[in-house]
Each structure stands twice: as structure tokens, then as C-alpha cells.
Amino acid sequence: MRWLLVLFFLFPGVALANDWAALDEPGAMAIMRHALAPGTGDPAAFEIGDCSTQRNLDDRGRAQARAIGAAFRERGITFDRVLTSQWCRCRETAELLDLGEVSEAPPLNSFFRDRSTRAMQTEQIRSMIREASEPMMLVTHQVNISALTGQFTRSGEVLVIRLKGDDVEILGSILIEP
Q1: Does some domain include residue 161?
Q2: Exposed site from 78, 109, 113, 144, fewest CB < 10 Å?
Q3: Could you tell me the CATH number of the domain that includes residue 26?
Q4: Number of domains comprising the chain
Q5: Would you call 89 helix, strand, or coil by DSSP?
Q6: Quick check: is 9 in a domain?
Q7: How does pLDDT run along the chain (178 residues), one tens digit per residue?
Q8: Which of the 8 DSSP states describes residue 20?
Q9: What separation in angstroms does the CA of 166 have from each of 20, 52, 108?
């Protein structure tokens, strides 16, 4: 096992395990942290409708989003619904995936700056998953994914999840780096 960890750190572009089969599980949904966007948080003058005020994807992030989408499409995996945070880095990731029609979903917006909405947004995401009749892709932020699943994700990482009562069960993970 140690040698696998050494390989992972020496060659970070190589994913150790992509659990594509997890997407075939009943009730499986995909939730993804946006692709690579340098930095942390957003500038002080952040505005939802103005990408010039936000932290955005760089060229590596765009390449990563395209590669992730291509890997899904190569396996014949698309989604009827791709829901995204209103942040530009999430919306651009969702569009570059090219896995289905993209719609904004405010519950997926980051609460990094204002943690007071954490519980409400997390419950709204659970409700979206609970009410979904078809598998969907959710593109959001690390804080949202951690609040929902208890797991930290890397930029561009896709967790395959399903609801088990009110709990979120992690079925697998997919990470493709540029």
C-alpha cells in the first residue's frame, strides 16, 4: 500500500482508482468539485454575475474539465441534468464537461465566506438528490461537498454518491487530471 501512496505523490496526474462501476449502482449520483482554479476563496469585490471579480479556471482547469467530460462520454455516460453553482468556475466546468444541459442551482453555491447557510444549503442539496428521478451531475465547491459527504475532494474530483435515508453514502470516486 505504501508504494501506491508514493506513486500517487510522485505522479499526481495518475489517478489510483476510478470507480466507474459505482455509477451503475441504484440511486447513484455524481457530485463534482469544480476543475482547477488557482487560489483559495474569492476576491473581496466578488459578484456572482461578474466573472472578472471571481477566482476562475485557468488553462489547466479547462483542460481538466474537458478531459473529465471526455472520459465520461467515452464510457457512454451522460446526464439528463447537470446542475451547477452560480460561481463562474463551476458553471464553466459544467459547460466544458459537455455531459448534458447545464442549469444553475443556488443551493450548490459556496458558503465558504458565510458558513451560516451551511445547514440550509446542505439540506437543499439532499432534497434535490432525493427528488431526482434520473441520475444527475452536480458541480459545486469543496465546502459544499464536505458538508454533504464528510469527505474532502480535490479539484475536478467526482464523488459517486447516493442517499441512504438522510445519510450520504460514498460509492466511489473518479479523478482525472490534465
Answers
A1: yes
A2: 113
A3: 3.40.50.1240
A4: 1
A5: helix
A6: no
A7: 343 333 334 334 444 468 999 999 999 999 999 999 998 878 888 899 899 999 999 999 999 999 999 999 999 998 989 999 999 999 999 999 999 999 999 999 998 878 789 999 999 999 999 999 889 999 999 999 999 999 999 999 999 999 998 899 999 999 987 7
A8: G
A9: 24, 38, 18
